[in-house]
Amino acid sequence: GENVEQHPSTLSVQEGDSAVIKCTYSDSASNYFPWYKQELGKGPQLIIDIRSNVGEKKDQRIAVTLNKTAKHFSLHITETQPEDSAVYFCAAAGGYQKVTFGIGTKLQVIP
Amino acid sequence: NAGVTQTPKFQVLKTGQSMTLQCAQDMNHEYMSWYRQDPGMGLRLIHYSVGAGITDQGEVPNGYNVSRSTTEDFPLRLLSAAPSQTSVYFCASSYGGGGDFEQYFGPGTRLTVT
């Protein structure tokens, strides 16, 4: 089955700096790569996603890149703000029933 | 729209007891799933459904049953609770059509089995 590795597990950045979270996947059949943000006591919420036919996608301060050859994808958050502090999960999917999540990255933005 | 709702928010069970975690969505989504979240292990798929009357097993199905009699509801049953089932449980739904797999998660149920 699919295996998704995510790192780092924790990340601290100063407010205004950039944060990068990296994930690798093992199944070349995976074609959908979502990123979720989970705030304390809440369920995960989709923040951005990318499909295998696209190399990069941006949404304001958030961007995701995908390298299909190397089987890795990354989340980039620029100009970080305290409200970006949360746990971020990457995932890889080859279909609805095959969504595999990474273990999560706890991001702390220090004011 | 209420989105995805889950009840209860918290539950304590004794080993061997049974219970049902409720999940409902009002978005007319065909796809629904149950995940458990444990420290250091991310979210793991327990069971999922691609429509009313259709369910299948995920990565960690043992000890859990599901049914899907309506589009809106997808309850998760613990038949005989064990301490290893102490976890936070999330229900999620997705439209699924046209490859739209964005999942909407409920607020979770924190279950402790003593």
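The two ends of chain A are 41 Å apart (CA to CA).
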